[in-house]
Amino acid sequence: MRYPLLAIDGGGTKTIAVVTNEKGEIVATGRAGATNYQVVGEKQSQLALQAALQAAVDEVLAGQDEAEAVMADRETVAFDRAVFALAGIDTKRDETVVREIVASALAGLRVEVGEVIIENDCLSALLGATGNSPGVLLISGTGSIVFAHDGKGDFIRAGGWGHRVGDEGSGYWIGKEAIRSVLKMYDGRVKTESILAQMILEHFGFGHIEDLYNWVYSENYSVDDVSALSMVVEKAAEQGDQVSCSILDKAVTELEQLLYAVLDGGGNDVFRSAFSLVLQGGILQHNRYIREKILASLNTTHPRLQLITTHPEPIHNIIQRGLGC
């Protein structure tokens, strides 16, 4: 059995592997946990990747009739191309490590792959969405990053340094700024009246600011839980809370800095003319205030940009990347 494409979207929380037909329609899907080796380690990354791939292949085989299944049991499943769009490929060393992880995962399966593409998941999503034309992808979800492609094979990125030292303007960053602001108000360092503290306490079911502090330094603290506070900040801002509005304005500034570092940096004039813009991530998809502020700024400085609306699931852009190579 031969299929044109095996596409994989692997991140820090989950992995999805899909098999497509010639039309790009998904005929089989496999899911597993995180494959970002920076988060889970190399061995767990390999096991999760192999599990997602095996599940997709098993679904392909399960869809055969009895005669085909007997034949398929004696041979491998072949793919013309496989695109591994994986988080955690940020440096040359990362590329080497991830190639070894992919090779080990494939070695444990009865599959044959013609062309293998292994690249950063953001890069795959951008190329799939823009069809290799000049374009910029800005992501603000749990984390934040911007990727740009000049249409000639050169790429630029900014951000994406992770929650410990970066991810400015992301959901996690907004949530962290909210906690910082609440603690400053508790100390008396910020005198502004705000409903944010009470809303955060209610969100977690805490009775006192010290409960929030204790949680931050407990084993229950998580990036995802802090990121979820971005929605609390948004609700408070909608009610006119000035502290929350200030946090969102700072998030806009941080995301604009990411964008303009790419658009105006590197001596590249491509983005002074027409190019495509893709916005992804929960903050840019659901926080209207941040989204509209950024678009208003870009429409002033780069009026020839074209905003592309893509499928909310990145795997669909990765499929287009694989079919369009």
TrEMBL record:
<dbReference type="InterPro" id="IPR043129">
    <property type="entry name" value="ATPase_NBD"/>
</dbReference>
<dbReference type="InterPro" id="IPR002731">
    <property type="entry name" value="ATPase_BadF"/>
</dbReference>
<keyword id="KW-0808">Transferase</keyword>
<feature type="domain" description="ATPase BadF/BadG/BcrA/BcrD type">
    <location>
        <begin position="8"/>
        <end position="316"/>
    </location>
</feature>
<dbReference type="GO" id="GO:0016301">
    <property type="term" value="F:kinase activity"/>
</dbReference>
<dbReference type="Pfam" id="PF01869">
    <property type="entry name" value="BcrAD_BadFG"/>
</dbReference>
<keyword id="KW-0418">Kinase</keyword>
<protein>
    <submittedName>
        <fullName>N-acetylglucosamine kinase-like BadF-type ATPase</fullName>
    </submittedName>
</protein>
<dbReference type="InterPro" id="IPR052519">
    <property type="entry name" value="Euk-type_GlcNAc_Kinase"/>
</dbReference>
